[in-house]
Amino acid sequence: MCLFASFPSVTSARHFHPVMADDATRKAVSEIPLLKTNSGPRDKELWVQRLREEYLALIKYVENNKSADNDWFRLESNKEGTRWFGKCWYIHDLLKYEFDIEFDIPVTYPATAPEVAVPELDGKTAKMYRGGKICLTDHFKPLWARNVPKFGLAHLMALGLGPWLAVEVPDLISKGLIKHREQQGS
Questions:
Q1: In the predicted model, is pLDDT for residue 131 greater than 50?
Q2: Which residues are 70's β-sheet partners?
Q3: Residue 135 is among the residues annotated as catalytic for this protein
């Protein structure tokens, strides 16, 4: 299944923190349905129910964001819903910077949030772990932990990857660590 979505703007603060979220972010997140089934991939039948809730929440998030004209990622999963991959992008100075994204659902999900990786940015920022996994430890993971099992993948995108991109991509561009594909030949 392929999903299209967008994320709301975040504050210009160097480090995103949920308390610092602007009104648009709070509104967008409040419109994402909360999940009910506390189940991970090891729970065969309950996982199917949880996965259905995940898709419904992602679809709602997509619909809401499409109406706001803020398309910023495409996401799809394997048949089991345990491996997710796609593309995300960030618009900076009217130029689109596009990146591959991937993550696996942890066996302890939803108690443990997935670790989103942006492999091509691996080693370019201190806000990343080996393999291109983005750092969400300080702000997102405690928020996730307080909201188990209500938060799902739509929340991961809205409160995790989206704000990370909004902070890190402009910084990497300003440092010359990433260049727009049209500028790479020069």
A1: yes
A2: none
A3: yes
Q: Which of 46, 56, 68, 135 is catalytic?
A: 135
> Would you say the C-alpha torsion 69, 74, 79, 82 has a positive or negative sign?
negative
3-state secondary structure 86-132: EEEEEEECCEEEEEEEEEECCCCCCCCCCCCECHHHCCCCCCEECCC
CB 142: neighbour CB atoms within 10 A?
A: 13
Phi, psi of 40 (to 5 degrees): -120, -175
Give the DSSP H/E element, type plus range, for residue 84: strand 83-92
**Would you state the structure tokens that stand for residue 153, as one six-digit string?**
């993948």
- Fold of the domain spanning 2-8+17-174: Ubiquitin Conjugating Enzyme (3.10.110)
11 pLDDT above the threshold of 60: no
